[in-house]
Write a structure and sequence with these properties.
Elements (H helix, E strand, L loop, with lengths): L10 H14 L12 E13 L9 E6 L5 E7 L3 E8 L8 E3 L23 E7 L4 E6 L4 H4 L6 E6 L8 E10 L14 H5 L7 E4 L6 E4 L4 E8 L6 E4 L6 E5 L2 E6 L5 E4 L4 E7 L7 E6 L7 E8 L29 E9 L3 H7 L24 E3 L13 E3 L4 E8 L5 E5 L4 E6 L2 E2 L5 E2 L1 E4 L4 E7 L4 E7 L2 H5 L3 E6 L1
The structure holds CU-O-CU linkage (C2O) and copper (II) ion.
Length: about 475
């Protein structure tokens, strides 16, 4: 709304009307028939899931609509999506639509963009799917436990003109800490997990189940959408005798390329879209192996080939995706900002190695910032965030370009996520990246410096945080304000 044409509007009236227009984002745009809105309903509640095969019993989980993962939400680019969320949990919750650009009021961050949805309460999320791609949804309230107990689902936005494939398959990856009786171990948010690499599990599921085999046909072309919903586990998948091509990262198209070192890397919250040509012979059995952690490699599943081939040679269909309408940052005028991540176990050592000793502030290096039940273990520019943060550590003028130089001066890798925007990853340790890839979650190795660039075009207060849920809970987050 433009004040220029309403000179008589008083301040009080203006506030009232701007609240009204914020509320109006939750109803269909004028001219949009109700039938053009894709409607979904999600109910967050306790449930049971069969994560493990018999003789194990079901696992008590928290989930959406009774399943883990929650229902896959699938719309087409340009559709308007309306999701009515009901909270059947015994505690507050919200839903965050990870990676998809949307208005701030729909972002699902408690106390920052909305009041939490109270037990028994409802909230309607509604936004246009501007970008095609592979996204996901999850609570942003006590994420380390709510996501950890099974609250998450895939959000797929289909391209108008998707690349031709034989099958479009989503693999939602998760990692659970289960007891002998297949129950979820209750020790969420313990200090050890928080100060080290986060909560690592002992059971990896795909689409909510421990999977032994995945059937394919010789000559078949798959589009595989991988989503890492784990609290802390990093995946580095080796498809062994296959040559997958990465066509999108975090939902955003990238020049099709083979994964570096043959490993498909997914930090928590990250997504990778692959084209996988099934090139082995009929009847073959090959493995998908995770090699993220040295000496702890494991077989994720076997690809089992049927006896009949679909075709003799892999198809030569084009695999590149059309770009999404993202604003291109202007690197010549971009303002630079330094963001330093410190803290955690052995963080002091890395700071010293990087010649940064002391720059992380007084609380740098571990447990000194511990207060109350939310230990401030991790810091962004010297500050360990409290649960309810509202003050931005960066304020960016709308529609201007910015480069954030992110330095990981800790002894752990971190997948750092920005809400409301996608950014280009332009360099790592001073070396330009080959694909200048768009991401919403950037993986930063120990002692690494990464530059990301974006246009701050989406007004509001946006979270910027590590997606290892325990790191986030222990301070590794901040707010970036776009005015
Ligand atoms: Cu996947 Cu702040 O979120
Ligand atoms: Cu982290």
């Amino acid at each position: 709304m433009s004040l220029k044409y309403k000179p008589t509007v008083t301040r009080r009236a203006f506030i009232a009307s701007s609240l009204a227009s914020a509320a109006a984002t939750a109803v269909p745009l004028p001219g949009l028939a109700d039938s053009d809105v894709q409607r979904y309903a999600l109910s967050a509640a306790t449930g049971k899931a069969r994560l493990l095969p018999p003789p194990y019993s079901d696992t008590d989980v928290w989930c959406y609509n009774g399943t883990v993962p929650g229902q896959e939400i699938r719309v087409r680019q340009g559709d308007r999506l309306r999701v009515e969320v009901e909270n059947g949990l015994a505690e507050d919750t919200t839903v965050h639509w990870h990676g998809i650009r949307l208005p701030n009021a729909m972002d699902g961050v408690p106390y920052l963009t909305q009041e939490p949805i109270r037990p028994g309460g409802k909230f309607v999320y509604e936004f246009d799917a501007l970008d095609a791609g592979t996204f996901w949804y999850h609570p942003h309230q006590r994420s380390f436990e709510q996501i950890g107990r099974g609250l998450y689902g895939a959000l797929i936005v289909e391209e108008a003109d998707p690349p031709q494939v034989d099958r479009d398959v989503t693999w939602v990856l998760d990692d659970w800490q289960l007891t002998e009786s297949a129950a979820i171990s209750d020790d969420f948010g313990n200090l050890g997990d928080m100060s080290h690499g986060g909560r690592m599990g002992n059971t990896v599921t795909i689409n909510g189940q421990v999977v032994e085999t995945f059937g394919v046909k010789s000559g078949e072309r798959l589009r595989l959408r991988l989503i890492n919903t784990a609290n802390a586990r990093i995946f580095a998948l080796d498809f062994e005798d296959h040559a997958p091509q990465i066509i999108a990262l975090d939902g955003q198209p990238v020049t099709p390329h083979a994964p570096k070192g043959g490993l498909v890397l997914l930090g928590p919250a990250m997504r990778v879209d692959l084209i996988l040509d099934c090139t082995a012979s009929p009847g073959a059995r090959t493995q998908v192996v995770d090699r993220a952690y040295r000496d702890r490699e494991f077989r994720v599943l076997d690809l089992t080939y049927g006896d009949a081939a679909l075709r003799d040679v892999p198809p030569d269909w084009p695999m590149a995706l059309a770009a999404n309408p993202l604003p291109e940052p202007d690197l010549t005028t971009a303002r630079r900002h330094e963001v330093l991540f410190t803290g955690g176990m052995m963080g002091r050592m890395v700071e010293r190695q990087m010649g940064l000793s002391g720059s992380g502030g007084m609380m740098s290096g571990g447990m000194m910032g511990m207060q109350g039940e939310r230990p401030g273990i991790w810091m962004v520019n010297g500050v360990a965030a409290e649960e309810r943060i509202s003050e931005p550590f960066l304020t960016l003028e709308r529609d201007t370009s910015h480069i954030l130089e992110l330095t990981n001066a800790t002894a752990f890798a971190h997948p750092i996520h920005l809400h409301g925007h996608s950014f280009r990853v332009i360099s790592r340790n001073g070396v330009p990246t080959e694909h200048q890839e768009w991401q919403d979650t950037v993986f930063i190795s120990v002692a690494e410096r990464v530059e990301i660039a974006f246009v701050a075009d989406n007004p509001g207060d946006w979270m910027f945080h590590c997606h290892i849920a325990e790191h986030m809970a222990a301070g590794m987050m901040g707010v970036i304000r776009v005015t």
